[in-house]
Amino acid sequence: MGLEQFERRLERMVEGAFAKAFRGQLQPVELGRRLTREMDLHRTVGLRGVVAPNAFHIYLATADYERFESFGDALNGELVEAVREHAAGERYSFVGPIEIVIHEDPDLGVSTFAIESEVVDTTPGAPDWIVLPDGRRVAIADAVLTIGRLPECAIALDDPNVSRRHAQLRRDGQSVVLVDLGSTNGTKVNGVQIRERHLVPGDSITVGTTTMRFEPA
Q1: Which of 118, 128, 146, 194 has its CA 20 to 30 Å from the CA of residue 45?
Q2: H/E element holding 21?
């Protein structure tokens, strides 16, 4: 629904003076489609539900950038609205304002473009994250997070080598502590088996055959 509304609004916007600029060239709606795809691909699971990227950088070839530049503010506003509407339709949430920046990239060919997206948390006390093998991220707030095979675990893993309640992530001031809960196969950090460990940025956590990564706020 969000993209359909975006397309209809865009059709009205490009009538008249802008119509020739799009004939046979890169269409702005293609940017909208790619933005929503980025949201779907890089959504993460947090304590507040599914969190989508809110910061986007679009890279255009020089010719396309120059064509879009004459109505860049209007296009940017429509793209932001398309992102907002897609999030509402999919029940995604954001941890900061939506920001879209369009850049010129002379290395790109005409009608080709690239988009980078990320979750930018601008709220005080932004959470740390555990990045799962499929790219999903689970926020670590003040609550204790249990890792295990049980479905009620905060990080539930479909891995027969993981114990039902395998390990926990706990806050210790500003640090995050990983604690093994007496699991059958043990818990490793960077390949070394541990009972308890304060995590540092980039630490690799392995439970069973599943490896995750710790990312600070």
Answers
A1: 194
A2: helix 19-22
The amino acid that residue 178 corresponds to is L
Q: What is the pLDDT along the chain (217 residues), one digit of tens a residue?
A: 455 666 666 655 555 444 555 555 788 888 888 999 999 999 887 666 788 999 999 999 999 898 887 777 778 888 888 888 888 888 898 877 888 888 999 999 998 999 999 888 766 666 788 888 877 788 887 678 999 999 888 899 999 999 999 999 998 877 899 999 999 999 999 999 999 999 988 899 999 999 999 987 6
Structure tokens at 124: 């005080």
pTM over cut 0.85: no
Quick count: other Cβ atoms within 10 Å of Cβ 138?
A: 20
What HEC string does 25-94 produce?
CCCHHHHHHHHHHHHHHCCEEECCEEECCCEEEEEECHHHHHHHHCCHHHHHHHHHHHHHHHHHHHCCEC
Contact yes or no for 33/83 (Cβ under 8 A): no
DSSP, res 166: -
